[in-house]
Amino acid sequence: MARIPRCIPDERFNQLFAGLGSHRDRALVSLWVSTGARAAELLGARCGDLDAGQQVITVVRKGARAVQQIPASPDAFVWVRLYQCTLDSSTPIGRDDPLWWTRRRPLRALSYPAARAGFTRVNPVLGANWSLHDLRHTAAYRMARDPRLPLTDVQWVLGHAQLSTTQLYLNPMPSEVIAAVLAHHRRAPDGALPAGAADGGPVSEYRAESLDTLFSRRSS
After folding, report:
1. Closest to 31 measured CA to CA, from 12, 10, 50, 14
2. pTM of the model
3. Could you tell me which of 81, 74, 72 has the C-alpha nearest to residue 42?
């Protein structure tokens, strides 16, 4: 059986993002969900690895340890800048200094456990159990489902050695399939407008012939 990607639905992601407690966490989540980078790859970034002008960030890939630039969304760089504006003047910001820092003293480079705690703190409020790795799945799913983005490009961004790994994200989520098929059933056949739509009246969710069959009505 094909594995279903653990993707965070858009509306749930918006709720999660709104519940984050700092610009640092918003910057991290924005980068994770737009780059598809692994949590540790992004946490290991240095200040000099960020190129807002080109909208890329350099990471060291897990396993092969290859150095790679990956693109991120414009919003992610806005959040990074807002996060940087919150840093104390004593925070090291040289090219080789860590990009991510703890919010509490003593000042330390942000670790994976600390980043995970900042992210998962929102879960109880939402009644969810999302993980940092689910952000990578979400980014992969969004990119793989974009018909204008070649799957080989998605493979490169994600750092997958095999295209078959990337193809797993083509598997649809059941909730999306159900919504799409229900929308299909609501559409009138042959492109005809549903009853009431042509004259601006209320649109019925049911076809007239279906209601006639249901209530054993016969046309005269």
Report:
1. 50
2. 0.80
3. 72
